[in-house]
Structure formats: C-alpha cells, structure tokens
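Repro:
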Amino acid sequence: MSHSITSSCTGCTACQKICPVNAISGERNDLHIIDAAICIDCGACGRVCPDSAVKDPEGVVCKMVKRSQWPKPVIEEDQCISCGVCLQACPTGVLDFRTGSDHQVHAVAWLKDPSNCIACGFCEAACPVNAISMKEPVPDFA
C-alpha cells in the first residue's frame, strides 16, 4: 500500500512539486491522486501538505512539518565503508562521495545538497554498517 490523498485536498500542488518520482497528479485547485504503482512511500508529500490531506500506508493522517525541521542524514565517516548503497537508495540524489577527513584514504558518503533532501530516511535504512542516522536539525540561536 502507498500514501494516499483524501478529499481534504485543496489542490495546492505542494505534494506534486516535491514528489521525487512524479507519482502525484492533479490540477491546481482540484483533488490530487497518488499512483500507488509509482509511489515509493518517502513521505515527503505528507510533510508538505498544509491541509493534512495525505495518509501514510497505515492510514494515519500525515502532519505538515516545517522543512527546516526535517531530519537530515548524518554520516559517521569512521564507519562508512564507501559501498555506495546509500547513494543508490536516495531518490533525490543528494548524497555523494568525498574524501574523508582525518587523513582517511577512502571516500565517504556525505550530504552534498541538504536543501533538496526530503528526509525519507532511505539512506539510513539501506546502510549495511549503520553509519547513517537521521537527525533533526539543531536550532541555531546565534
């Protein structure tokens, strides 16, 4: 089962714009629908919906979350084995390899494009050595 859109949808198009696989269709100001055959259940649609019109696969209504509060992947460089599984799992391509710090020879995964991360957590789930954890941003009170 995939995410679904309820009749509370006002057709704002926020969900359609953020969907990384174009599983959502509909015209502005009209009810949108999610194609279950395409949906990857990343949950981004539910996090951006201002009308609470998206249900997760269990039927629970998703709540809108400010994008600044979406968790981001944090990679432990000393645990990363450079397998690339996280890069392959990421539906938005925001992860890449870079040379590690502290004189490490092998490349490590890193979040190269934080602003386009949709907080799906697929990278964390895919990592075979648990080098990735999703963490909510810490507010900057500076």
